[in-house]
């Protein structure tokens, strides 16, 4: 499984090399464009700041009061059967509804266990292959004024479950 | 929805904290978390700016346009009912590519326009068309080249090698999207045969 770790090392430098290289070949003003794009990134982060402060405070309170531990403890018997760490159940559940709330749970896991622990790595991989199903569906279908969504939810849950199973297996064999 | 979730989290946290005698820890956590959120945003500012900057270069070099055109054969397989060169297809392609490149905020407006076009194709019915179902399932299956935010969070919390998860993440996200594609194709066939 060394190969997958190689991908990890080379992916980002390669993508940047490819884009900037091609930009130079096409005679695009690469640095000007870069700074222009970077400005957009600032706006994106500024937009999420208030949400992140609010949710990290809420998760911080839940963690300090022991609610998160109580939750994880309560579902432990069930998750042991599924070979899934009970610490990640709140994350996977919240992930279906709200991206920013999930983010604050991810940060809590990184703080408690470290990003390089088994749980930290598994969290990173799960977050990379899942989406906020209910939020996305409600926004998109509201736009199209659709009331009956047929098999969308089933398909979305199926894809998400496949991603989570793959994450658990990959995290076990790659690292 | 987030209103209830957030309110509920705070209320439960404070009540349980008071009952278990950890109210001083709750107090400290509220203050330190608020500060932590801002410190994290500073790390994220750097990463997000780097990524959106590179993506702007990709746009000006024509890479994003080329990718959008490049996935046309895939779209023909996934959306057999949308005529070629229909605006719906263009919006879907832009949405998928933006999501793939981690430009979520640019992807959503495109996706909503795609839904409006699909709605026209669906003769304004209140029941979702197969194309809508497929589009949303693929969208939610979240194919992503580099999860930029996760890398920023890992850096912030002291990972020795923040990008070590990229390979596994790429495989996992491919698995979930393939599962979504498979499900969509089979479900469409089943819906037709009824």
UniProtKB/TrEMBL annotation, chain A:
Coiled coil: none annotated. The chain crosses the membrane at residues 6-25, 45-68, 122-141, 153-174. GO terms for cellular component: plasma membrane. Keywords: Membrane, Transmembrane, Transmembrane helix. It comes from the Bacteria. InterPro entries: Gate_dom, SpmB. Pfam families: Gate. Residues 45-144 form the Nucleoside transporter/FeoB GTPase Gate domain. This is Spore maturation protein B.
From TrEMBL, chain B:
It comes from the Bacteria. Keywords: Membrane, Transmembrane, Transmembrane helix. Residues 42-150 form the Nucleoside transporter/FeoB GTPase Gate domain. It holds the Pfam family Gate. The chain crosses the membrane at residues 6-25, 37-58, 133-153, 165-187. InterPro entries: Gate_dom. This is Spore maturation protein A. It comes from Anaerocolumna xylanovorans DSM 12503. The lineage of its organism: Bacteria, Bacillati, Bacillota, Clostridia, Lachnospirales.
